[in-house]
Design a protein that fits this description.
With 111 residues, this protein is of the alpha+beta class. It has two helices and three strands; from the N terminus they run αβββα.
């Protein structure tokens, strides 16, 4: 039911749902095509991921490579990838957040 006691217009609700699906699909495509970076060790290790979180590139400065201390290098790699993924999540919230909030305004669908 919508305020005022009337029944929701099902055709209008379906059109709204289809538009939101299209908007969501478009935003997901944009995320998959957008690259974000993260770094660690003052830039010694840099990771690039898509907005969807797929690792695309990893750059390691030769200064970060110490054969006697591969553990630190591994930590830097993990930190750079995590930083890139954190940036991707922020991008996802920016792109997808408004779409998810829009679902709350669809009376009769229980969102």
């Amino acid at each position: 039911m919508i305020p005022g006691g009337g029944q929701p217009n099902m055709q209008q609700l379906l059109q709204q749902a289809q538009k939101m699906q299209q908007d969501l699909a478009r935003a997901q495509q944009e995320l998959a095509a957008t690259l974000v970076d993260g770094q660690a060790g003052g830039g010694l290790v840099k990771a690039t991921v898509t907005g969807a979180g797929e690792l695309r590139a990893l750059v390691i400065d030769p200064k970060a490579v110490d054969p006697e201390d591969t553990e630190t290098l591994a930590d830097l790699v993990v930190a750079a990838v995590q930083a890139a993924n954190d940036n991707a999540q922020q991008l996802q919230q920016t792109k997808l957040g408004p779409l998810a909030q829009g679902m709350g305004g669809m009376p009769g669908l229980g969102f």
